[in-house]
Write a structure and sequence with these properties.
heterodimer, A: 185 residues, alpha+beta, 5-stranded mixed sheet, two-stranded antiparallel sheet, 7 strands, 28% strand, B: alpha+beta
């Protein structure tokens, strides 16, 4: 009888231990699932500053376009055209000598540079890009001057970017900011 | 008999402890592998950015820099005079050095028109030097390339985009 009781007690203890172990495993599993759902549930695409993109943006600012505003051959650089485009949008109509609008020439030249430099294509390293140029001062934060993109900004393994400020000079107190983001696959 | 029971319990307890410890170690390793998954990638990116910065410094060196105060800008007229100067092969720590203009982007290597005094500026590729090393890794950075041009008897700066490509010899490990 005593032996039987001892056996039952041993069995009970073993059951308790197994239950305890299962409890610990369950608890850790739940914590693991919660942790994974937080980290993998909304994967934040890493967004980093890239020297390559910053250099491309900086170099493109110096690109000489085929737009002269005052006389030929005073052809404007991209950074000048950005300022002229901002003036144009502020109802101070600006045109090249050949009657083309400064903003359209700016967009055309920037697209040409970025398309050739970044070689955007599905299956390539660079999947898409987004260029955003805006004017900022105390009264008007982020007033868009020009903005366009190529490719599809989805399923990027990382997004690298660069920015370059252009002092708006004598005509305004604020600053023009250029931002380029590239979606890497 | 009691001694045997005690031993069994100690054994049981020790197995249990080992199992729990192993379980926690595995969970810990799993968590760590997720948290630090991006570290290698980040290290590679930082190393690449450093190398690219060295190219920016090269573009800003007196041998290449534009006469106007533009950073990350190469003077095309200086560059054309640098071609075939063998002395520069030992001057910079690169095994090869070349500049590809925007007109050459996306073209095959064989399609690129190499720049000489005769065809400048209607060309795509400036080959500064090439030591023809076997195991080479090329790094490139975007730069502006400017030259003097003239129209209607006016001289003006004409700037384009280019890629400064530098090769470094890889040591076989």
């Amino acid at each position: 009888m005593v032996k039987k009781m001892e056996k039952i007690e041993m069995k009970n203890k073993a059951q308790h231990e197994i239950a305890g172990f299962v409890l610990i495993v369950l608890l850790v599993s739940i914590i693991g699932v919660v942790f994974l759902s937080i980290t993998l549930g909304n994967p934040e695409v890493s967004r980093q500053t890239s020297v390559e993109v910053s250099n491309l943006l900086l170099s493109s600012m110096y690109y000489t376009t085929d737009c002269a505003i005052n006389y030929v051959p005073q052809y404007r650089e991209i950074q000048d055209l950005i300022k002229e485009c901002y003036k144009d949008q502020s109802r101070n109509l600006r045109k090249c000598l050949d009657e083309r609008g400064v903003c359209s020439v700016l967009e055309e030249n920037l697209k040409n540079i970025l398309d050739k430099s970044l070689n955007i294509e599905e299956g390539r390293v660079n999947k898409a890009y987004n260029l955003n140029i805006y004017y900022s001062d105390d009264e008007n934060p982020n007033e868009e001057i020009i903005s366009f993109e190529k490719g599809v900004f989805s399923n990027c393994t990382s997004v690298v970017g660069g920015s370059h400020p252009i002092p708006s000079g004598s005509f305004e107190s604020g600053e023009i900011e250029t931002e380029l983001l590239v979606c890497k696959s | 008999m009691k001694n045997k029971k005690g031993q069994l319990r100690i054994q049981e307890m020790s197995f249990m402890l080992v199992a729990v410890a192993l379980f926690f170690i595995l969970v810990g390793l799993f968590v760590l592998s997720i948290v630090y998954a991006g570290i290698n990638e980040e290290a590679t990116r930082i190393a690449e950015d450093r190398t690219l910065s060295s190219l920016t410094n090269l573009a800003d060196s007196p041998e290449f820099s534009c006469t106007t105060s533009k950073s990350n800008c190469i003077d095309g007229d200086k560059l054309i005079s640098l071609l075939d100067k063998t002395a520069y092969q030992t001057f910079w720590p690169y095994s090869s050095l070349e500049v590809i203009k925007l007109s050459g982007f996306g073209k095959d290597r064989s399609e690129l028109v190499e720049c000489t005094i005769a065809n400048y500026p209607d060309c795509d590729l400036f080959k500064v030097y090439d030591k023809n090393v076997e195991n080479e890794r090329a790094i490139s950075s975007f730069v502006a390339i400017c030259r003097k041009d003239s129209q209607n008897e006016y001289i003006y700066d004409k700037c384009e985009i280019a890629k400064l490509v530098a090769g470094t010899k890889l040591d076989r490990g």
